[in-house]
Each structure stands twice: as structure tokens, then as C-alpha cells.
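User: Hi! I'm working on a homework problem where we have to compare a predicted structure to a textbook description. Could you give me the structure for the chain below?
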Amino acid sequence: MKDLILMITTLAMFLFGYVIARRVDMMMENNLKMLEKEQLPNKHLLKIAAETPMLLNAVAAALEYCTDTNADIEFAVSSGKCGKLLRNLSDGTADLVLLSEKSALENKQNFEFIRLSCIQQTDATEVFGLKVHSLDDNQDVYLLWNKEIPSHARDWFVLALKNSFCMAKCS
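Assistant: Happy to help. Predicted C-alpha cells:
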């Protein structure tokens, strides 16, 4: 009889220990999940596409400003032909597009754009680690975005770009 009571007591203690260990394990998993959610950075990827890498020089100051002041914005830069860039802008594959020709903007009602006047520098510009000389004297660059696709990071970048051009004109 003593053996039976001892076995039942031992079994009850093991079951109680298992239940407690299971609850502690579930609590630890929930805490870990909550910590991972809090520690995940809220990175925003801003995809910028340009007709030529030289056009990226027009927004270089704004890119620098954005990376210095807002660490949660990352940039992906690409280049390609005008038609492909406009298609990427339409379907949301690109957030911003830099073009050198205003004629490509006609019949594009869902796009907004700003014109950036860029005065040609006399020395070579470094793009992606290469020195590039432009043959144009003055070049207007058109920055386009799809107004139907909302993007906080894009709007913040456009505002920073407008501010940097305003500061450059005012000083």
C-alpha cells in the first residue's frame, strides 16, 4: 500500500512539474516573440531608377541628407530605358524615376513630377566609383512618382529634395 501511495505521489509531482515547465516555456516563447517584434527595425526601401547614372547626381545631396537624418530609409538604385522605367513606376516596382526628357511625361495623368535644374559642373562627376563627364551644358532632370501608390518614405525624400534645392537656390 505504501508503494502505491509513493508511486501516485511521485507521478503527481512529475505531472505538476511538467505542467509548470510547459507554462514557463510558453511564457518565455511569448516574451521572445514580443522582444523580436520590438527590436525589428522598420526599414523602408525606396527604389530609385534613372535613365542614366549621371542623373543620380541631381539627387545626390538629398540622398546624403536622407541617409544622415533618417536611418530607417534604404535606397535601391537602378537604371534603364525610359519606357521600362515608366512601366516600373506604373506597377510600383520603382518608387521614383529620374528622366532627362519631358516628352516622356505626356499622357501620364497618374504621375506627378518636379523639374530639377542642374547646372553642369566643369569637372568630372563620380558615379558608382567611376569618373563620368557629361556633354550637356545645362540639364533639366524630371523626378517622377506615381501619385496613386502611397509611400511615406517617397514623400519624405521628395520633401527633402525640395528643401535641398530651395537651400541651394537661396544661398
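For your comparison, note the following. The mean pLDDT is 78. The beta strands are 44-50, 73-79, 96-99, 111-119, 125-127, 130-132, 138-146. Good luck with the assignment!
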